[in-house]
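Worked problem 6 (solution included).
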Amino acid sequence: MKNDIFHFKEFDVIQSKSAMKIGTDAVLLGAWVSLTHNELKVLDIGSGTGVLSLQLAQRSMADTIDAVEIDPGAFEECVTNFENSPWGDRLFCYHAGFVEFYSEIEETYDLIISNPPFFQSPLNSESKSNSRETARFQDRLNFEELLKGVSVLLAEDGQFSLILPYPEMEEFIQKAEDHALFPVAILNVRGHSSSPLKRSLITFRRNKEENIVQNELIIELGRHLYTQDYIDLVKDFYLKM
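Solution. The predicted structure is:
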């Protein structure tokens, strides 16, 4: 089928078996997350098809990029996408739940990324897919468990970046502080200049910063007419940008 494979500039993503197809959220996060080029080990929590891991493989020189995915279909496709990419020797996907993973893994990661499941409509679409939303609802990752695991696995000077619905940002930041994780950068996103804020991309570190870098991104000026800020952010990935 037409939507079974999503073509990026440097890699392809097979997604026929995955409930969660390629969307704006993951690509935004993979393009936005700040890299210091000292990230030797990266972890992608709830990887789905593996698009975030593939973006980080394209952008970074990390020796190892591990992914964790519990859904069998998504796991299978994630492994295939990793193997078919130019960076297959640096990518590995674990078929496990995150609680199981962080309870058994003893190493730490310089960068942890996640596009966690949440019961929310897509950023740029009013349409709803019952199977898609059902999958997100059933696979929902408890924020407390997510933060607990991140606090265990994050290197002392590492960073944790994720994307959330904007209304959940403040609650998540408060919960993160209970695990000694503090925001250092926030990007709030809206689809159009007149639409409400829909997503928040947040980076956390173990050390609290006095000044948090906060910005806002507008995706579209009109239907398929994208802002220059959005184009500049994702142009290394999308074929038509």
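Discussion: Confidence is low (pLDDT under 50) at residues 119-139.
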